[in-house]
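Q: What structure does this chain adopt?
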Amino acid sequence: MTPPPRSGDLVRPRLFVFDSEALSRAVRGDRAFLGLVNKAWERRAPVVTSGLTTLEAWDPRPGKAPRLWDWALSRIEVIHADGAIVDSARSLLTEAGLHGHKYAIDSILAAVAAAGARRGSQVTVFTSDADDLERLLAGIPVVIEPV
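A:
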């Protein structure tokens, strides 16, 4: 879970959104992504992903460091796809002219990012599907960071 905000914070809040590749790198021990998660935690900047993204990133093979998975997910907020998120994802798909299972999880992640932007956060999406996320988030003030 995200730590509570500090009183007196006046800067626009940051929000980092991880797709499955970014999440996979964090739970595999990639130093850059672990460092980002840790720094964000220290600075009270949420790192979020969707519940569906956790399934996409899950690797049940032996030796995949379940403690690291647990640690990372203790610092990353998992947003579940409720009706509002699904409706937003559907709208984003329609506006982008996309459909089908290829874009389903990306559209949920895009809806999470769009919700953060609507709340006034500076949103950065870390994704291996930069082209798809750029299409889904066209016109929404987010930064797409390819991984």
